[in-house]
């Protein structure tokens, strides 16, 4: 069952960057918007700028699909319990990945120019499909790449930056649905050269350090890793990306998107063709598009298991901005002690049953080595807190839970779990997050308790090692419209029926 996969796109003129380019770099270097805009359908037909502006919608909306739903539908005998326990296992791998990247990247960020560029008053909205891959309950997007455009399904990930596809010749690749991308079959494919300043945004392969004898012609090899043994190696390139919009038959095309053309790829990306990065770094898809659709994107995730698709919006969503319950909390500023890929927020306290729990600020903060802190992440299913905080949270629920619900001992992975047989109106203590700027995120019970069997429900929160970061996962975000306001450096959230967005 698909939740909704996204992809957002509009159209930028092709990039012709060189080593001597002096244009400002904010995120990725893009030229001014020009007349090239793809018509409905994937035939590459172009419209003039005036005609396009006349019919342009205020934003770009895309469908997303939750990949685990599709996988569950195909798996005979798979239960909701099996699915979530599997997600928890994958979360563990993903968290180890992010922990490794967090510490390794501390203090090694690329500074991008903050020179403003006038954004068009358009937004991109797509449907997102829920998925499986790099770690857990990821969301997938249908993207058409190249000229002529060919369809590929990519994982949406706010926890990484690089966009990449498995590419021919595929020298060491994982199994995916459908053929890999073939650069030779596309007339719009171009390698980024080693002298291009964008080449400095990716790491070279460790086994073969990058040489650059001809800065204007030699390719830019890259290596991008995800912590465990998941990684992609290939050439940094530019290509046209086209996406289906939520409107029937409508598409948008973006030329000159920087992406990794991966010839060696390993890891937990089973079935997908690659990954679409939405992180804070300059190579992410969100960073590359923000000069066109505005410095904001948002998504609204329907409940896990829903047959309705989720949505992702690039640009402003006027309904969301007018929502009376829209709250904001500032993103933590990027420092030399934290990785610049992740969206950090400043968590001050955790409340259960309306009471602030006795958890030290050091447990929730960023340590000197760059570890710790709190991020919001679309690719992690459950929510996680350092083990000292988790033990306090767990005990708070045990102490405040209705004693008529028998506690289930030794239930795998999740705890506490309760037998709620015969109880129609199930009541649980309230759960909230308090941020340092005073913002409070209150969650409905269905966002932090999971009913894994007809008579069993469990707390959808787990602990991580003492030095690990806290993560607000996608299960806790369901039926909230979550806004990444990059212009004002803040996170927005408002309760919303995501199936109606």
TrEMBL record:
Annotated active site: 157, 377
Pfam family, one: TAXi_C
Peptidase A1 domain location: 139-494
This protein's record includes keyword Electron transport: no
GO molecular function: aspartic-type endopeptidase activity
Key words of the record: Aspartyl protease, Glycoprotein, Hydrolase, Protease, Signal
Signal sequence bounds: 1-19
Keyword Hydrolase attached: yes
GO annotation (BP), single: proteolysis
Family named by the database record: Belongs to the peptidase A1 family.
Name of protein: Peptidase A1 domain-containing protein
Organism: Lolium multiflorum (Italian ryegrass)
């Amino acid at each position: 069952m698909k939740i909704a996969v996204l992809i957002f796109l509009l159209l930028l003129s092709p990039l012709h960057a060189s080593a001597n380019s002096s244009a400002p770099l904010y995120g990725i270097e893009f030229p001014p918007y020009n007349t090239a805009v793809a018509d409905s359908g994937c035939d590459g037909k172009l419209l003039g700028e005036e005609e396009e502006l006349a019919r342009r919608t205020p934003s770009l909306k895309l469908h997303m699909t939750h990949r685990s739903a599709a996988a569950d539908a195909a798996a005979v005998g798979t239960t909701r319990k099996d699915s979530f326990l599997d997600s928890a296992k994958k979360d563990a791998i993903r968290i180890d990945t992010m922990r490794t990247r967090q510490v390794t990247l501390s203090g090694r960020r690329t500074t991008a120019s903050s020179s403003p560029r006038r954004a068009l008053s358009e937004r991109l909205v797509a449907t997102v499909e829920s998925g499986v891959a790099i770690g857990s309950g990821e969301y997938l997007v249908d993207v058409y790449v190249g000229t002529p455009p060919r369809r590929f399904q990519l994982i949406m990930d706010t926890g990484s930056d690089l966009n990449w596809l498995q590419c021919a010749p595929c020298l060491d690749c994982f199994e995916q649905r459908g053929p890999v991308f073939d650069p030779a079959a596309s007339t719009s494919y171009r390698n980024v050269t080693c002298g291009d300043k964008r080449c400095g945004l990716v790491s070279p392969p460790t086994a073969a350090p990058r040489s650059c004898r001809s800065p204007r012609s030699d390719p830019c090899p890259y290596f991008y890793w995800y912590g465990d043994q998941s990684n992609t190696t290939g050439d940094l390139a530019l290509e046209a990306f086209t996406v289906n919009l939520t409107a029937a038959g409508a598409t948008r095309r973006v030329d000159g998107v920087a992406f990794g053309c991966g010839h060696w790829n390993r890891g937990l990306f089973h079935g997908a063709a690659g990954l679409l990065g939405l992180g804070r770094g300059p190579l992410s898809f969100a960073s590359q598009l923000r000069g066109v659709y505005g410095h904001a994107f948002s998504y609204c995730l329907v409940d896990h298991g829903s047959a309705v698709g989720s949505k992702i919006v690039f640009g402003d969503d006027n309904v969301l901005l007018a929502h009376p319950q829209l709250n904001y909390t500032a993103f933590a500023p990027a420092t030399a002690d934290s990785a610049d890929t992740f969206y950090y927020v400043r968590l001050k306290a955790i409340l259960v049953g309306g009471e602030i729990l006795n958890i030290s600020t050091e447990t929730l903060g960023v340590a000197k080595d760059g570890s710790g802190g709190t991020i919001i992440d679309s690719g992690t299913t459950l929510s996680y807190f350092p083990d000292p905080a988790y033990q306090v949270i767990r005990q708070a629920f045990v102490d405040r839970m209705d004693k008529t619900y028998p506690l289930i001992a030794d239930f795998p992975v999740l705890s506490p779990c309760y037998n709620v047989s015969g109880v129609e109106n199930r009541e649980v203590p309230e759960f909230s997050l308090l941020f340092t700027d005073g913002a409070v995120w209150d969650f409905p019970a269905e966002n932090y308790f999971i009913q894994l069997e007809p008579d069993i429900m469990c707390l959808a929160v787990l602990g991580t090692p003492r030095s690990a970061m806290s993560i607000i996962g996608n299960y806790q975000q369901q039926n909230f419209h979550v806004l990444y306001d990059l212009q004002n450096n803040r996170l927005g959230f408002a309760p919303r029926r995501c199936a109606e967005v």
